[in-house]
Amino acid sequence: MAGKFEVYEDKAGKYRFRLKAGNGEVVASGEAYETKAGAKAGCEAVQRAADGASIVEV
Fold first, then answer.
1. Would you kindly state where each structural domain of the chain is located, as residue ranges?
2. Whether domain 4-50 has CATH 3.40.50.1240
3. At a CB cut-off of 8 Å and minimum separation 6, what does 54 contact?
4. Residue 2, exposed/middle/buried by CB under 10 A (0-12, 13-18, 19+)?
5. What average pLDDT does range 2-22 have in this prediction?
6. Is the dihedral of CA 4, 18, 42, 35 positive or negative?
7. Tens-digit pLDDT profile for residues 18-58
8. What CA–CA distances, in Å, run from 6 to 9, 11, 12?
9. Which H helix or E strand runs over 49?
């Protein structure tokens, strides 16, 4: 099963997203957004940024 982004409202009334792997484990989470649309845009930004991203040791 593929991973998925979940958009949810936190206890403070802000919107956040988390990326879950196919096994249900949370592998990444986003900052707080004022709107649900903002959180969805954050998901899309992560998708764009991760496409073809390399792994760099620092």
1. 4-50
2. no
3. none
4. exposed
5. 97
6. positive
7. 999 999 999 999 999 999 999 999 999 999 999 999 999 99
8. 10, 16, 17
9. helix 36-50
Q: Which residues pair with 6 in a beta bridge?
A: 18
pLDDT at position 1 over 80: no
CA 54 vs CA 12, 16, 42, 50, 58: distances in Å = 35, 25, 20, 8, 12
pLDDT of residue 2: 87
* 53 φ/ψ angles, rounded to the nearest 5 degrees: -65, 140
- How far apart CA 22 and CA 8 sit, in angstroms, is 18
